[in-house]
């Protein structure tokens, strides 16, 4: 509950015009990119510096309100969706790249820096920051760190956690600390940077981020392979994963997605085929040519109907952009697109693809599948009308089955989007009660008053560790 006294306290900490309480402002920040989730916060605050963030968090402990840090709001698990008593923190002007340290191959950045802007700035210097979520032209480094975001280059270069060397963080108590730093090796105490990465705004507010950089790979080749069945495409993914070549990108698009992308982006994709792989290799030119040749052979051996190479860097860029538009393109087909994040070991991709198709048929829903197939990370996207309760229930039942299949195949309910609100009811199935209790103990130790983004990943009280109760998603954005 945000009292009048707390609002005055916030205004004194920042400035009157930095504390927004008008209904339309609150509605703007009621949701993120996750459909069917939303709640109007009590206030929105735009702090100017880390000292103000620390003061707000201390005030939250004193006055009993919660604080939800927010980046660009592109999250797909409801991580930035506030509760009704929450104060949302915005970082729109925290978008400076503070230092690019070329000799030490790292950069300090503010949390509101847009990911693609960081790519551009470091690439101009011949350096490279690999994490490239599909949303990279909009999403922020702060949100990427909080979700441990992945991207198209994850197969070779890993996810955000592999690129974070240090953080300046406001802890849930309101203390400001720096974790990690420019030293390449550092084993002084527990690995607290790793604890913070992927903490979904529940353990700290990031006020500065130290990212790792590497030399930019000099050459990239882009290959498109099409298949008569989605299972054949899955088999090619498993065969490439088992080969001695490590592509930077290995993406899959099924026919539903291909059709949607082609009608949206018009880049000349063959949308009559059942599946397509977008594969990239990067590195030194000679090695890249050899790898591209081998991958072409593997795709043909796995019954690819066509294998083509991008004609030019611009063509490759167009294909990548089209792939990044997959969710947007699918979302145009029906009023509501629920995108999920099922991830299995790469060798299980063909099996999961087959099971998703059978599950969609069984529950009578349309599911388009695309994703980072090389990482075993698929995004089954269910296209429904969220106003139709029966259709929503069928979609939820289909996702229940998809996650059961994912866990049975040795996978996880989320490879990169986080648990947030949307998936917390599945977490006990994945981690078991002891695993969830462990997470809860970490949260309670660092944030005894539950001020930072409470109710995300797991509920504070143990009663919710059991099987799901009632409808998992709710609508309260009015
Ligand atoms: C079209 C589309 C494509 C996408 N593609 C990918 C993809 O390929 N890979 C992938 O991993 N994700 C993808 N996503 C999901 C999303 O973009 C990522 O999760 C991204 O990291 C969210 O960043 P954001 O700035 O929008 O954060 P938000 O959505 O605003 O917030 C996400 C979480 O971060 C926390 N947070 C934000 N800022 C801070 C901070 N300063 N300190 C502490 N916590 C903070 C929030 O509390 C919340 O829990 C995609 C989303 C869309 C809409």
Summarize the model shown.
The chain has helices at 4-13, 23-28, 50-63, 115-123, 141-147, 154-157, 192-196, 230-242, 255-265, 285-301, 313-324, 326-331, 349-363, 389-408, 427-446; strands at 19-20, 43-45, 66-70, 86-90, 97-101, 106-109, 127-128, 164-170, 176-180, 205-212, 214-215, 219-227, 249-254, 275-283, 304-309, 336-339, 342-343, 366-372, 377-384. The longest helix is centred in the C-terminal third of the chain and has 20 residues, at 389-408.
Verbal overview:
This protein is α+β, with helices and mostly antiparallel strands and 478 residues long. It has a domain at 219-408: Vanillyl-alcohol Oxidase, Chain A, domain 3, CATH 3.40.462.10. 35% of the residues lie in helices and 21% in strands. It has 15 helices and 19 strands. It has helices spanning 4-13, 23-28, 50-63, 115-123, 141-147, 154-157, 192-196, 230-242, 255-265, 285-301, 313-324, 326-331, 349-363, 389-408, 427-446; strands at residues 19-20, 43-45, 66-70, 86-90, 97-101, 106-109, 127-128, 164-170, 176-180, 205-212, 214-215, 219-227, 249-254, 275-283, 304-309, 336-339, 342-343, 366-372, 377-384. The strands form four sheets. Strands 12, 13, 14, 15, 16, 17, 18 and 19 form an eight-stranded antiparallel sheet that branches. It has a five-stranded antiparallel sheet with strand order 5-6-10-8-9. Bound molecules: flavin-adenine dinucleotide.
Helix-strand layout with pairing:
Layout: H1 4-13, E1 19-20, H2 23-28, E2 43-45, H3 50-63, E3 66-70, E4 86-90, E5 97-101, E6 106-109, H4 115-123, E7 127-128, H5 141-147, H6 154-157, E8 164-170, E9 176-180, H7 192-196, E10 205-212, E11 214-215, E12 219-227, H8 230-242, E13 249-254, H9 255-265, E14 275-283, H10 285-301, E15 304-309, H11 313-324, H12 326-331, E16 336-339, E17 342-343, H13 349-363, E18 366-372, E19 377-384, H14 389-408, H15 427-446
Parallel strand pairs: 2-4, 3-4
Antiparallel strand pairs: 1-2, 5-6, 6-10, 7-11, 8-9, 8-10, 12-14, 12-15, 13-14, 13-18, 16-19, 17-19, 18-19
The structure holds flavin-adenine dinucleotide.
Flavin-adenine dinucleotide binds at residues 32-33, 68-76, 79-80, 91, 111, 133-135, 139-140, 142-144, 146-147, 149-151, 200-201, 205-206, 327-328, 416-417, 453.
């Amino acid at each position: 509950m945000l009292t009048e006294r707390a609002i005055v306290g916030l205004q004194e900490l920042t400035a009157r015009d930095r504390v927004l309480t008008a209904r339309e402002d609150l509605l703007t920040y009621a949701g993120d990119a996750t459909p069917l989730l939303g709640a109007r916060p009590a206030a929105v605050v735009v702090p100017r510096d880390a000292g103000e963030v620390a003061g707000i968090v201390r005030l939250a402990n004193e006055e009993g309100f919660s604080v939800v840090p927010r980046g660009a709001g592109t999250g797909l698990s409801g991580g930035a969706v506030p509760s009704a008593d929450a104060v949302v923190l915005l970082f729109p002007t925290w978008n400076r790249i503070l230092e690019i340290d070329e000799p030490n191959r790292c950069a300090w950045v503010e949390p509101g820096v847009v990911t693609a802007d960081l790519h551009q700035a470091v690439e101009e210097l011949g350096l490279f920051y690999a994490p490239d979520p599909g949303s990279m032209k909009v999403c922020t480094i702060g949100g990427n760190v909080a979700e441990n975001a992945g991207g198209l280059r994850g197969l070779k270069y890993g996810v955000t956690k592999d690129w974070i060397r240090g953080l300046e963080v406001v802890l849930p108590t309101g203390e400001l600390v720096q974790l990690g730093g420019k030293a390449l090796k550092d084993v002084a105490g527990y690995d607290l940077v790793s604890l913070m990465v992927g903490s979904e705004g529940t353990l700290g507010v990031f006020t500065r981020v130290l990212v790792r950089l590497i030399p930019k790979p000099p050459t990239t080749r882009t290959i498109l392979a099409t298949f008569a069945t989605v299972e054949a495409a899955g088999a090619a993914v498993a065969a490439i994963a088992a080969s001695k070549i490590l592509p930077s990108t290995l993406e899959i698009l099924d026919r539903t997605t291909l059709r949607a992308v082609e009608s949206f982006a018009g880049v000349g994709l063959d949308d009559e085929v059942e599946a397509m792989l977008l594969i990239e290799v990067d590195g030194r030119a000679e090695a890249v040519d050899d790898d591209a040749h081998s991958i072409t052979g593997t795709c043909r051996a796995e019954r690819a109907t066509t294998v083509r190479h991008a004609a030019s860097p611009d063509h490759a860029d167009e294909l990548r952009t089209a792939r990044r538009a997959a969710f947007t393109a699918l979302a145009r087909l029906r009023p509501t697109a629920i995108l999920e994040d099922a991830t299995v070991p790469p060798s299980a991709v063909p099996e999961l693809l087959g099971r998703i198709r059978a599950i969609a048929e069984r529950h009578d829903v349309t599911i388009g599948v695309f994703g980072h197939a090389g990482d075993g990370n698929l995004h089954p996207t269910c296209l429904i009308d969220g106003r139709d309760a029966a259709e929503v229930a069928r979609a939820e039942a289909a996702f229940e089955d998809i996650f059961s299949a994912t866990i049975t195949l040795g996978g996880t309910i989320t490879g990169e989007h986080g648990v947030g609100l949307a998936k917390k009811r599945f977490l006990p199935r994945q981690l078991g009660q002891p695993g969830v209790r462990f997470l809860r103990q970490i949260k309670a130790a660092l944030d005894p008053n539950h001020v930072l983004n409470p109710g995300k990943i797991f509920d504070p009280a143990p009663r919710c560790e059991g099987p799901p109760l009632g409808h998992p998603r709710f609508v309260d954005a009015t």
